[in-house]
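Weekly structure sync, notes
Attendees: PL (lead), two postdocs, one rotation student
Agenda item 3: pending single-chain targets
PL asked that the sequence for the first pending target be pasted directly into the notes so everyone works from the same version. It is reproduced below exactly as submitted, 347 residues in total.
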Amino acid sequence: MTQKLLIREMTPQDMRAWDRYVDCHQDGTFFHLTGWYKVIQSVFKHRPHYLLAENDDQIVGVLPLFEQKSHFFGHALISTPFCVYGGVLSDSETIRKEIEKSALELGTALNVDYVELRDKSERETEQPWVKHCHHSTFSSEINDTPDQILTNIKRKQRAVIRHSLKSDLYWDNQDNTSLCYDVYAQSVHNLGTPVFDKKLFDSLKETFGDQCETFVVRNNEGIPVSSVLSFYYKETVLPYYGGGTSDARELKSNDYMYYQLMCAAIDKGISKFDFGRSKKESGSYKYKKHWGMQEESLHYRVALIKADKLPNLSPNNPKYKMLINIWKKMPLGLSRQLGPQLSKYLG
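Predicted structure, written out during the meeting:
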């Protein structure tokens, strides 16, 4: 490095250069893009702190961060909430460590409980960073034809999909965020989870355009039974906010939906299917496991600042189990009113 490394917060004028850096970096993900700066700030009102490293006026590293502050859920600096992946992208390990050092200094200045980095790949772990993740992600290559896609799915799951193909289901991807959200809201309510604000779906579509798409499955009466909002980036489709109504299980419409999403991706030139993260041994983890995709453990890290122990926001935490049971019994309309006030801290 011919000049001293400069680490500062991103400005609006830096956004295009930031995104170009993410696009060109081998580890750059959809969740490192500056569109999330706009979405999370506008929908959830969390304060962004996007750290940018420069050398000779050229970007050599980036770290998207958001400050979340709640009396009930704590005060944290996270890269990045509501996202599977995050952490530092940089030209070297030396630069990465300098950016992480700046993140710790920022967390100390903000007096947060902890700083969390959602690294996809394993990093060297040095104090004060400690590993803090119990999630895996699943992915597979998308084959050239629907038959080849089906053949590469595990036998039992393949039989379920074949069954779904006989259920008179049909789909469209006409970008109806309202309809997609309605189905998703029913799904998470049945799980006892507070739903996000509908503004999230609208903002994602408005911000990312063709990189964001809704996919809705209907039964033979034209009633929506499953839906998913997906992201497209670097020849990968990432089904992200998906779920089904109470009829979805019997119809196998979620299985139908993910299979048809893969098939539709062929025409878009998409070659990889990223099934996102799931907590190990959870219901969604076991469901994805049945598909036979490649499993990779995620490598999140946390550094405690003001807190004296690691956070536990898992639904399995006894602290939240009573709330989950109450939420399941709550009328759907009321849950959609109250949910956004809680879910904004559960990303």
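Discussion points:
- The CA atoms of residues 150 and 177 lie 28 Å apart.
- The domain at 6-133+299-311 is CATH 3.40.630.30 (Aminopeptidase).
Action: rotation student to compare against the earlier draft before next sync.
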